[in-house]
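FORM 7B: Structural annotation worksheet

SECTION A. Query
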Amino acid sequence: MRYIRYAILAAIAVVLIVLALANRGSVTLNTLPGGLAEFPGMSVLSYSVELPLFIVGFGGVLAGLLLGFVWEWIREHKHRAEVVRKQSEVKKLERELRRKEAKQNEGKDEVLALLDKAG
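SECTION B. Predicted structure
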């Protein structure tokens, strides 16, 4: 199974390298469109940078993955909170059970208390 995983990862790496080599041309990324950047006061927000196309593509994929992970983490918060609440309830009930068993076995011989607890 490990070798299958390595083979798939190697295939993905080869595809990504081929894509990077095929898309080495430079593109200009602008934070604002040309018409909007000409409005007064908007020049502060206007930036541009030249990058190879494959970096833009890989960056977009990476940003999408990160956004998806964060979205799922936020979406699953209610489930994690419910698990924490149930775990604390179980601990509370276990403490209560131990107290009741200790009270029930009070005054008994230790061996008999262990036998009662075992079954």
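SECTION C. Observations
The beta strands are 26-30, 48-52. The helical segments are 2-22, 34-37, 53-75, 77-104, 110-118.

SECTION D. Sign-off
Analyst initials: ____
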